[in-house]
Write a structure and sequence with these properties.
Layout (H helix, E strand, L loop, with lengths): L15 E5 L10 H4 L6 E2 L2 E2 H12 L3 E6 L3 H13 L9 E6 L6 H11 L6 E4 L3 E3 L3 H14 L3 E9 L12 E6 L5 E7 L12 H4 L5 E3 L2 E9 L3 H7 L6 H10 L1 H4 L2 E7 L5 E3 L3 H12 L11 E3 L7 E3 L4 E2 L4 E3 L2 E2 L4 E2 L4 E3 L2 E2 L4 E2 L4 E3 L2 E2 L4 E2 L4 E3 L3 E2 L4 E2 L4 E3 L2 E3 L11 E3 L2 E4 L13 H7 L11 H6 L4 H4 L9 H19 L3 H15 L3 H14 L10 H11 L1 H7 L3 H17 L1 H5 L1 H10 L5 H9 L6 H25 L1
GO molecular function, one term: translation initiation factor activity
Subcellular location: Cytoplasm, Cytosol
Keywords: Cytoplasm
């Protein structure tokens, strides 16, 4: 008889997955009081739908959905979706596991271990996972590694994401050191704003011939697990989270005899998890731009009358006089006249009356905002909240029911109460810190230190009209993608033709104009040496970069209009960076010698420069040389 194979293609091997439905935190209060995390609407579709679709497309056949709260609501939703032939319902069997006594991620896995429901390797998803990752090849690779390394416990799935990338959360930054076979030797999560120094154990360098250190990874919150994972959680009650599990196994590798590996996804595969409001916003935009295809959101996308990046659900009534930009609107929403929405997330069955202003905030389902209300600066309104006329809510969490720890001043209306969250690490001095930490939707950390100033300066209606949303628009997101592509291309010595295809793909994904493409490509190339060089080393590094990317410059700086965009990029980078400003004349000379910029374009650009600026002073000698050469040429022609 032939020996049975461990290959996942065997009919007897059913691909199973565990999905934990609860987050066990306060990140999504007050909404999570009434709406389970699994059913939180993301671009007009519950999170659990995205997760089950991902697992279905990935080849998973059986899912254990572990629920600790809102059990009946989740059960009813799963049954209704199955009856309505949801995308996943034909290929995935969903078993709902209930244990209301569990208080952590680790408790859930210990309970599953006691039930003995899983039979082999399985996929482990934390709450709010969205992805289009192809799981079967990764599972097969995990099994191959397990055959060689009997102690293999888990393969973590990561994605490339450079510092500053849109979908990379500063609160989830990680540093990973691994050997040549991608076995994790060191793993540390860096808390943004805390001590940024890292001490690596000397043993990992002494015991391994090759060690790779990565700070360009994003955790997708997806893992392939061996059968040993559940017993390891049962044997170690201090493993409350997956981070505890990773840390514990690495610290006690010799005692526990278990190892962890990681797998990097590339290309069109994408993954992430809704772990806080920042990631909620980031993944909303990525879904809207179809980064997770074939996983798609619900709702129609608008880029015309309502501005760019607007998605509207079904059965909505919106006045033509309303001004809406970068916002997602749920089903059955009614919006009155002269309403302004900027980077707002409006959930289903909400009514917004005339003259309301909503910016960088979330409005929960079935809420009502009466005429003249203003909701700003990362406020979150829970379900069924009602605001009276002309109420102003800023940087605040609001729920419809009276909180247990009620204080005078917390009541805004009969169905609107302020709430505060308990935070163990830091004292809430001004009463706003916790709202900023847990509900702020800003993506740029530089704004974290300026919130107080913004709040103090925006108390009046006039001031509100001058507030600019700190959220990066599509152009900034495109620039970040170009930086990532060029950095990887330069380091891996990729063909410039392939990089041009990547840049063009990003252009269409973010819907930016050709003028913005020309400008940002040149700006990105000029910025690359700042990551590796400074002072006098900048110019030689830049010249090497320019030579390498010359085919890209030739592709984009191809006419008079593009030359203007190129010169504007050079001017802007030089104005903010002394390194380029000091050598701008030599850089312009290089562009001129390589025929990327004409003499006429440079002289016309120089005439429009501020004569008193540092850039103008540095460019002056080169311009004089051009003018003298032009005069000499004219003189020769006249003779």
């Amino acid at each position: 008889m032939a020996k049975k194979s461990n290959d996942i293609d065997q009919k007897s091997d059913i691909i199973q997955a565990i999905v934990i439905a609860d987050g066990f935190g306060s990140e999504f209060l007050p909404l999570s009081n009434d709406v389970p995390l699994a059913l939180l609407q993301l671009v007009n579709k519950p999170l659990i739908e995205y997760t089950l679709e991902f697992l279905s497309f990935g080849g998973v056949e059986e899912v254990f959905l572990f629920c600790c709260s809102h059990v009946d609501t989740i059960k009813d939703y799963i049954n209704n979706s199955r009856n309505q032939d949801a995308v996943w319902s034909q290929t995935v069997k969903v078993n709902i596991i209930i244990s209301e006594s569990c208080r952590s991620f680790g408790d859930c896995l210990r309970d599953l271990d006691a039930k003995g429901l899983l039979r082999g390797n399985f996929v482990l998803c934390e709450p709010g996972v969205i992805s289009n990752v192809k799981l079967l090849p990764i599972i097969k690779k995990h099994i191959e590694i397990s055959t060689k390394d009997k102690g293999t416990a888990m393969t973590l799935i990561y994605q490339e994401a450079g510092v500053g990338q849109y979908g990379r959360c500063p609160r989830e930054e990680i540093v990973v050191a691994s050997n040549s076979e991608n076995r994790i030797l060191f793993h540390k999560k860096i808390n943004h704003g805390h001590d940024r120094k890292i001490n690596f154990p000397l043993e990992i360098f002494l015991e391994n011939n090759c060690v790779s250190i990565h700070h360009d990874l994003k955790d997708t919150h997806i893992a392939i697990c061996s059968p040993s994972v559940l017993p390891l959680f049962s044997d170690n009650f201090d493993f409350q989270t997956r981070d505890d599990f990773i840390k514990g196994l690495l610290m006690n590798e010799e005692i526990l005899g278990s190892t962890i590996y990681w797998h990097l996804i590339k290309g069109n595969q994408h993954g992430g998890a809704i772990t806080n409001w920042r990631m909620y916003q980031a993944l909303s935009q990525e879904l809207a731009n179809h980064w997770f295809y074939p996983i798609t959101p619900d709702g129609r996308t608008f880029s015309g009358s309502f501005g760019r990046g607007v998605i509207i659900g079904s059965n909505c009534s919106i006045s033509e006089s309303s001004n809406i930009s970068r916002s997602i609107i749920g089903n059955n929403v009614k919006i009155g006249k002269n309403v302004t929405l900027e980077n707002a997330y409006i959930m289903s069955n909400v009514k917004i009356h005339n003259d309301c202003f909503i910016s960088n905030s979330v409005i929960g389902p079935n809420s009502i905002l009466r005429s003249g209300c203003k909701v700003t600066f990362g406020s979150v309104l829970g379900a069924n909240v009602e605001l009276n006329k002309e109420m102003f809510v800023k940087n605040t969490l609001v729920q419809s029911k009276k909180p247990e720890e009620y204080k005078d001043g917390d009541k805004l209306s009969e169905k609107a109460y302020k709430i505060k969250l308990v935070d163990d690490e830091e004292e809430d001095i001004d009463g706003n810190k916790l709202a900023r930490q847990f509900s702020k939707l800003h993506l740029d950390e530089e704004y974290a230190n300026s919130d107080d100033d913004l709040l103090e300066s925006s108390d009046s209606e006039d001031d509100l009209s001058n507030v600019h949303s700190p959220v990066p628009d599509d152009t900034n997101m495109f620039f970040s993608e170009v930086i990532d592509s060029l950095t990887r291309g330069y380091e891996d010595k990729l063909q410039c033709d392939n990089l041009i295809l990547e840049i063009n793909s990003s252009r269409y994904a973010y819907n930016v104009t050709l003028k913005e493409v020309n400008y940002n490509v040149v700006k990105a190339i000029l910025n690359l040496p700042f990551q590796h060089s400074s002072g006098q080393q900048y110019l030689p590094a830049l010249l090497r970069t320019l030579v390498y990317f010359s085919p890209i410059l030739k592709n984009y700086v191809r006419n008079e209009s593009a030359a203007e965009d190129c010169l504007q990029a050079i001017e802007d980078v030089a104005a903010s960076n002394n390194e380029l400003c000091e050598c701008i004349a030599k850089v312009l000379n290089w562009f001129y010698d390589k025929d990327h910029l004409s003499e006429e374009a440079i002289l016309q650009w120089f005439r429009n420069l501020d004569s008193g600026s540092r850039v103008s002073a540095r460019v002056m000698p080169f311009v004089k040389w051009l003018q003298e050469a032009e005069e000499a040429s004219s003189s020769d022609e006249s003779e």
